[in-house]
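Database export, one record per block. Field names are fixed; values are copied verbatim from the stored entry.
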Amino acid sequence: MADLENRDLRRVRLSRAFFLAAVLCASVLNPLNSSTISVALPVLLRHFHAGPGDLVWLISAYYFGSALAQPVFGKLGDQFGYRIFVYLGLAILVVPTVLAPFAPSFGWLIAWRAVQAIGTSMLFPSAIGLVRQHHDRELGRILGWIGTSVGVALALGPPLAGGVLALVGWRGIFWLNAPLIAAVAVFLRLGLRDTPASRAPVRQGVLTAVDLPGIVLLAASLGLLLAASAIPGDPASLWLLLAGALLVSILWTVELRAVAPAFDVRLLRRPAFAVAGAVTVLVNFVMYLVLYGLPSLLEAGRGLTPLASGFFLLGFAGVLAAVSPLAGRLAQGTRRRGPLLLAGALLVLGSLSLTQTLVMPLGLVFIPLALIGVSFALSNVLLQKLALESAPATDAGSASGLYTLLRYVGTMGSSVAIAAALPQGRAAALVLFSLAAFAALLSTAIAAAVRDAARL
């Protein structure tokens, strides 16, 4: 009897380990695809004879697709079960992994990046939903481990991509997804082999659960705003901007009245979620200014190779990976305000220091990158947990999807800023990272000003 109990206990522990491995590998796919493409931006623009305005679409296509898809599939996961969307997302990811390297034009490359985004968008909210379903008591700790995995992907992605670029060219970047796709599928199968598929009771049919008006309005509004940012100085850009803003206001009204909104903006009425969302937009704006802007500045302004510029991001992402477990432990407690204010101060200091990127000794660039890595490690886990805890566990997918949409709003904003600043030559670093410092200061002020309502 004791031997049987020991075998059962070992099987349970092994299943848990496989499940967590699947969640971590699924979480890595998004940052890996972000960080590997960052050092390849100049190479891709040269290969396809594209200009700075095209950079907006190359970066934003991924996050445009994710912004649309993550809240939708988070909601569908809440309705019909998370497990099926993990496997469906993996199947979709196989397509761009195979076909994107053979894109015949820049437009096709952008399209495959959007398909890639849809696949990863099925994975993350559903993976978080599975964690809340099976390991809710460990949510803060698991989010810390996810933060570490994200940091490792961000740290290894740029130098790994630089090596791949040197060996096989830009096409190899897309092939890096293949082993991770296989790992998630195998680990999840083993991790849930003794767990029957479960889901919340179906509250609507599929067509009702998929909020088509909300999806169309968000796609149209984001598309107009990105189109306006891609043609700065053109008279049409102002009209596109105004039309996009008008559609955003219509989207807000429609989603407030929807029975099953794809983008449940009612969550923003919860003070904790509103604070976490606002700070997240600003923090991600800064992070992706660094992730996408710095390699291009180092390659164009200081003559570094993609491999060398990729290693500089280790200062950011390596520290992020190292500090994330500490952030996970902090997230398990009740303290929020102190760590978030510390994170904001470090983000401001690091951003101001990076304004001197093109003139400071190269070795010193690692210092502000390390400060920003600590900052993001502290804020990322705390903000995500704060947002998720503000919603019922049965709506974990919806909350995760909307929270991630807000992250991507910040990311797409960074692509607009980078495309506008890079043509400024030697002044580009000053423009970019002064803007980053302002965003960091604003995020700190928001976290401090509403601490009572948001339980900070």
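Remark 1: The CA atoms of residues 119 and 240 lie 29 Å apart.
Remark 2: The chain has 18 helices and no strands.
End of record.
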